[in-house]
Amino acid sequence: MPFVGEIFSQLKAASGVTVLQEIRDGQVTGVTGAELLAMVRKARTFLASRKLNKGDRCGLLAANSIRWMAVDLAAMAEGLIVVPLYSRQAPAELVSIIKDSSPALICCGDPMLGDGIRQHWPEASRAEAPPQFLFDEIFDAVVAPEGVELDRPQLVDADPVTIIYTSGTSGEAKGVILTSANVGFMLGCTAARLDSLMEGRSGQDRIFHYLPFSFCASWIAMLTFLLRGSLVTLNTDLTKIPNDMPAVAPYYFLNVPQLLERMRRGVDDQIAKKGGLAQAIYPRAKAAWLRQKERRPQAGDAFWLWLAKAALFPTIRKKMVGENLRALISGSAPLTPETQDYFSMLGIPVLQVYGLTETTGICTMDDPHQFTPGRVGPAIPGIEMRISENEEIVVRGPNVFPGYWNRPQQTADALRDGWFHTGDQGEMDSSGNWRIVGRIKNLIVLGSGHKIAPETVEEEIAVHLPAAQQVVVLGDGRGYLSAIVTGNVTPEQAQAALDAVNSQLPHYKQVRAFVLRSEPFSIDNGMLTANGKLKRDLISVRLKNEIEQLYQVKQAV
Questions:
Q1: Which tens digits make up the pLDDT trace of 183-193?
Q2: Would you state the pLDDT for residue 244?
Q3: 350 in helix, strand or coil?
Q4: Could you give the strand order of the β-sheet that contains 364-365, starting from the edge strand earlier in sequence?
Q5: Alpha carbons 509 and 445: distance in angstroms, whole number
Q6: Which residues of the chain have pLDDT under 70?
Q7: Contact 415, 408 (CB under 8 A)
Q8: pLDDT of amino acid 557
Q9: How far is CA 40 from CA 31, 66, 152, 303, 438, in A?
Q10: pLDDT of 288-317, one tens digit each?
Q11: Which of helix, strand or coil describes residue 133?
């Protein structure tokens, strides 16, 4: 049975149980399995009334909500191909995606989002813009009492169910086609891993979810939660995450490294401001933990760790994530080993996953019972991963997408001899655990011929510079590396961090100059992709003058 049918069966089984709720303006509202199915039936009936054909595209432009998920399930069940559109993405970029995917209609959660699309659609071709329907119209429409039969078959394994557009860090975003078989395979893998994490516990899992459904891994996670009959609470205001998270008291939830780094800095700042006994214990316990990890303990370390674990860490943990947490799950970008170790110190395991939209979001997952900081776990059962030329990771298996939408040449470039070429550099240890080194296209080639993956150097600098928001290492074709540092950082702090990092690096990897920028790179200023990755090419163009000055100040070494 295709995965949509399996989710419907689970919702029927949980007809009287709350399965999905959202926090909006401080109020929690939820739906039972039966109520969510009723919403899906209403959305299916509306879509069926539009006389659409199987395989037509359906744009979905909205922030996370219960209604988003109902429309998504309804569209897939009707045989439509959903094109999720990120609600915070620039309207001009959304128009480009809409033109490329040519949806028959767009289901929109907010009138302002729809207005942004119309305003950026060229006047001459505005008549070609697809019709837009607000969620209010879809769910308030007058329909026949019985609506569409949920069991009416529309979907088979080979059918495409979604086109998810990639970030486009160095060019126009590409639409990744995923089939019902791709998604069904992945849901089996993720559900099995969560079963392992929750081993020995019965009843509903409590989950907090804040990542946009338009991101592949977030969407796969959400479908997995529904398939497992969990209780999922949606955050609808990112500024309220610190309050919403402990109130929900989740057992686990999906994260990006950026939030975990922010949580870590937040604890440091709060304890420094609070002072008192906590400030006396905390830095000593952190130092003792680090020395323990490095196997160079000192007298008194055991006492400070014992005291922190008894009197301080449980309080931090409860205030941060509530009382029930079994693990944090991190994806989207590599998490520094230092941050992973930090949460372990607090008694919070952080499990990593690695994957791309083209691999249905996931290739590897940490084993909840045995994982290595700095690595992203072994390949999920049923898929193959190996190293190709230039240390590139290549993948094949039922999770690999069939191709890009309307891009046969780029599909052929990415899929060769049955293997998907990820563009990521990696390495695997003797236990089968993978480490992601960096992106091949980001590789810096110095004038000397030395090749450097900037991500590893950036991570090291960030560890020594916690006040920095971002660190971007540059130097392609130059005589040495330099860096752009964003955030509230002083020149003295930046230089001290570089001195500490450079002392551990070979001469060609040392960063010789830097420029400070108080404004962080963000989605709003166009320097980050929709899922928070650096647009390195654009940064180089916009900061060209500042970068040139870095290489006029110092002589090549």
A1: 999 999 999 99
A2: 92
A3: strand
A4: 27-32, 18-24, 231-235, 206-209, 252-255, 327-330, 350-354, 364-365
A5: 11
A6: 1, 123-127, 142-153, 167-171, 531, 553-557
A7: no
A8: 38
A9: 12, 10, 13, 57, 41
A10: 998 988 888 888 899 999 999 999 999 999
A11: strand
Residue 324: phi, psi to the nearest 5?
-100, -5
Helices (H), 423-543: 454-464, 491-502, 536-542
Q: What does 18-64 look like in DSSP terms, one character per residue?
A: EEEEEEETTEEEEEEHHHHHHHHHHHHHHHHHTTPPTT-EEEEE--S
**Residue of 5, 7, 24 lying closest to 64 (CA atoms):** 24
* Separation CA 554–CA 427 (nearest Å): 35
Alpha carbon 291 to chain centroid, angstroms: 32
Closest among 430, 428, 360 to 397, alpha carbons compared: 360
List pLDDT tens digits, range 142-166: 555 555 666 665 788 999 999 999 8
DSSP lists the bridge partners of residue 370 as 367
Pair (408, 262) in one structural domain: yes
| pLDDT in the model for residue 556 | 39
Are residue 500 and residue 421 in the same domain, yes or no?
no
- Side by side, the strands of the sheet bearing 175-179 are 132-134, 105-108, 57-61, 81-85, 160-165, 175-179, 403-404
Biggest alpha carbon–alpha carbon distance for the chain: 77
Q: Which of 141, 163, 178 finishes a domain?
A: 178
Asked which of 178, 204, 222 is the last residue of a domain, the reply is: 178
Enter the DSSP assignment of 367.
B
Residues 6 or more apart from 302 whose CB is under 8 A from it? 288
At residue 443, the pLDDT reads 79
Cβ(291)–Cβ(298) below 8 Å: yes
Residues 380 and 269 in one domain: yes
DSSP at 449: S
According to the model, what pLDDT value does residue 118 have? 86
φ, ψ of residue 159 in degrees (nearest 5):
-70, 135
Distances (CA, A) of 192 to 6, 79, 196, 358, 372: 15, 27, 6, 21, 20
Distance linking the first and last C-alpha atoms of the chain: 63
Q: Are residues 99 and 165 in the same domain?
A: yes
Residue 530, in any domain of the structure: yes
Residue 508 lies in a domain: yes
Structure-block tokens of residue 297: 């303990």
- Which backbone phi and psi does 23 adopt, to 5 degrees? -100, 115
Do 382 and 263 belong together in one domain?
A: yes
67 in a domain, yes or no? yes
Amino acid in the structure at residue 551:
Y
Domain span at residue 316 reads: 257-323+325-440
Q: How many other C-beta atoms lie within 10 A of the C-beta of residue 478?
A: 18
CA-to-CA separations, 471 to 20, 491, 494, 498, in angstroms, rounded: 38, 14, 10, 11
395 and 447 in one domain? no
CA count, 13 A, side-chain hemisphere, 64: 23
271 close to 282: Cβ distance less than 8 angstroms: yes
The pLDDT value recorded for residue 333 is 76
